[in-house]
Write a structure and sequence with these properties.
By secondary structure, the protein is of the alpha/beta class. It contains seven helices and ten strands. The chain has a domain of about 170 residues: TIM Barrel.
Length: about 250
Amino acid sequence: MTSPGPVEGGLTARDSPLLIVMECFGVEVPTFQGEGPSCGHPALFIRLSRCNLTCAKCDTKESWDTSQFDLRDWSRKRTATDLAAWAASSPVELVVITGGEPLLQQARLVPLVDQLLAAGKRVEFETNGTITPLPELLVDKVRFNVSPKIASFGMDEAKSVVPAALEAFVESGRAAFKFVASSVADLDRIAELADAHRLAPVWVMPEGTTVDAITETARVLADAVAARRWHFTTRLHVLAFANARGR
């Protein structure tokens, strides 16, 4: 029997497309989308590994930081069909594809998204907004929570703010723009970016990985966010589940 031809990484065409996955959760133990426009909605999560940024305040460094983690211990390859079947086993409608930076693997995500939509799901991508989405992903029942990283998050904005990619998300009409903030000064920078790149709607999320930190920062930011008529989101998974992995 002739073997299927090789594809990237020594894999075979029979196994393709494969995605580098850090974790999947929400089927066995139910959970919610914890941030942004769908905060509080029941959700399934597919967290992909690898990122093109190196944010100092990232809370998922296991997906990219080779100085601290052996990424092989924190990820494995799974087929799009396997992931779609996993999601289809749950009645939950919303599937959140996050990372890392999921759009690094977007060509291989197209078949997954097609299968999820065929199963009656809707899809939200959590992306840092540096990579222009493929047209095949700009379809009904697919949304993008775009989270550009500002300097206070520990990232050089020359790398984390990509005007062409942000323009593509704006033009798609399928994006909300979610910024992590820790001070009122951060809101001034967010306003500059929103004005310069026509970003709307804007959502602000207080920085923090503990209940106390999120509560304190939310109280610092709330009046100023309200004054700008922006949306405000908490981090529900931290408040409800103490930031436990897989919740």
